[in-house]
């Protein structure tokens, strides 16, 4: 095991100890782990920089279909990592993984790529950190879980609310302490105006972008803008809308806080009710109900209008017989029923311990502490060959539940998914939607393979 003195030799490591406690020392044995990143856009780089801050890793490989993004990320990696070496660069993740010399692979690509890339990474012998939602459809998630278990790899999902300090505090001090009493209803929501809805004209594909490779197994849309600069999220071809992007975080958090697994039944309604003028084909309004024993978790999103509570526009609310807990990435508030002490806590920022954070372009300062802890949990699981807090199975349940809500909205009726049989019970039409078609020559992964 690395000694405390050895660990403190690097500035980033000493900052990690100051911020995260001595637990980090237990997971940094041996030589630096070799890391590769697939998808060098906003959050791919953000995840990589948080990993560099808390562990002595060597970034050896980067992959992206955008040559400009790739070159910029390689330069930044050489400046940030201790060795100052420039990573190898690839435009095809298969060529990167062919080297079979990576201990860890981070995946920060759009949703329609997660399954193929995660499965290929574990097949190459790497442990994987994959962004949420894990998959584009339910069957992909089953195949990802099966591959992780078959190859004995650790797979952490980027649902870092489980590693968010103030939410951990809320779970411990309020939920686990019984201050809510019996919890019989939960609400999750997002009212951000985050649905891109433009009408850009068709244009030539720029020389620096391999649009064919970017599209991969998804349907090929006519090129009308740089898709990977958040434009892709407005199309169902590549994701599952606000439900797949934002509900997955809050539903996952509620499941973690309350110890929930698969919902018994999922129902949803919604559509494009207001923002009809643009190219976007994801719902601008949606309600979904995830049914559990003696508890419903109800989701609502609108990408127009005002939030009912401006302080909690993207949040979860737990209603108990003894009080109410409202929580978000920024804070939490507990209000007791009748007399009692209200509790409040804001998100923890670590700008003093990590002074480079405020200088980073597009960083989510409130999320950086959570991602650092999430990376440490991932590394601890690698060291112990155990399941991380956001294990691929938990990511699959949360992702699939949100996808099932979209399927319910599409078919116009509730759906009941049997995870053991991998089918929607008694609904052949809905079952056909569990597997999206792949564009040739890409082939779907199979859970039974």
Give me the number of helical elements: 13
Going by CATH, the architecture of the largest domain would be 2-Layer Sandwich
Oligomer: single chain
General shape: globular
Q: Uncertain segments of ≥5 residues (pLDDT<50)? A: 1-27
Please indicate the count of domains.
2
Q: List how many beta strands DSSP finds.
A: 16
> Within the CATH hierarchy, at the fold level, what is the topology of the largest domain?
Dihydrodipicolinate Reductase, domain 2
Rg measurement, Å: 22 Å
Instruction: State the distance separating the first and last CA atoms.
Output: 37 Å
Mean pLDDT: 93
**DSSP helix fraction:** 25-40%
How much of the sequence lies in strands comes to 15-25%
CATH class category name of the largest domain? Alpha Beta
């Amino acid at each position: 095991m690395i000694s405390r003195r050895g660990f403190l030799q690097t500035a980033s490591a000493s900052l990690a100890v100051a911020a995260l406690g001595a637990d980090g020392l237990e997971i940094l044995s041996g030589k630096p782990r070799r890391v590769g990143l697939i998808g060098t856009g906003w959050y791919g780089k953000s995840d990589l920089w948080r990993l560099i801050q808390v562990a002595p890793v060597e970034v050896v490989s980067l992959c992206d279909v955008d040559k400009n993004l790739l070159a910029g990320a390689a330069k930044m990696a050489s400046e940030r990592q201790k060795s100052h070496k420039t990573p190898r660069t690839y435009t095809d993740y298969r060529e990167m993984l062919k080297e079979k010399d990576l201990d860890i692979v981070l995946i920060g690509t759009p949703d329609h790529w997660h399954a193929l890339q995660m499965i290929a990474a574990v097949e190459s012998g790497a442990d994987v950190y994959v962004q949420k939602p894990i998959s584009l459809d339910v069957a992909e998630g089953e195949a990802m879980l099966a591959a992780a278990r078959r190859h004995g790899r650790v797979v952490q999902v980027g649902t870092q609310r489980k590693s968010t300090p103030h939410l951990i505090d809320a779970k411990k001090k309020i939920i686990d302490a019984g201050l809510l009493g019996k919890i019989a209803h939960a609400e999750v929501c997002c009212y951000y105006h985050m649905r891109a809805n433009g009408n850009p004209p068709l244009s030539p594909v720029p020389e620096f972008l391999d649009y064919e490779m970017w599209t991969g197994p998804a349907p090929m849309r006519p090129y009308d803008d740089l898709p990977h600069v958040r434009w892709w999220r407005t199309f169902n071809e590549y994701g599952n809308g606000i439900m797949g992007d934002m509900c997955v975080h809050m539903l996952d958090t509620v499941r973690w806080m309350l110890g929930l697994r698969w919902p018994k039944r999922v129902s949803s309604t919604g559509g494009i009710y207001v923002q009809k003028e643009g190219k976007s084909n994801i719902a601008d309004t949606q309600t979904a109900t995830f049914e559990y024993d003696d508890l419903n978790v109800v989701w609502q999103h609108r990408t127009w209008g005002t939030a009912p509570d401006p302080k909690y526009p993207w949040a979860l609310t737990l209603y108990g017989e003894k009080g109410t807990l409202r929580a978000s990435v920024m804070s939490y508030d507990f209000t007791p029923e009748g007399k009692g002490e209200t509790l409040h806590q804001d998100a923890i920022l670590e700008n003093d311990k990590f002074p480079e954070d405020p200088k980073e372009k597009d960083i989510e300062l409130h999320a950086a502490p959570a991602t650092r802890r999430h990376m440490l949990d991932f590394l601890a699981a690698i060291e112990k060959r155990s399941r991380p807090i956001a294990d691929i199975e938990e990511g699959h349940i949360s992702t699939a539940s949100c996808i099932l809500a979209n399927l319910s909205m599409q078919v116009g009726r509730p759906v009941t998914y049997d995870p053991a049989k991998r089918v929607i019970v008694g609904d052949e039409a809905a079952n056909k939607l569990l597997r999206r078609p792949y564009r040739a020559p890409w082939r779907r992964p199979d859970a039974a393979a």
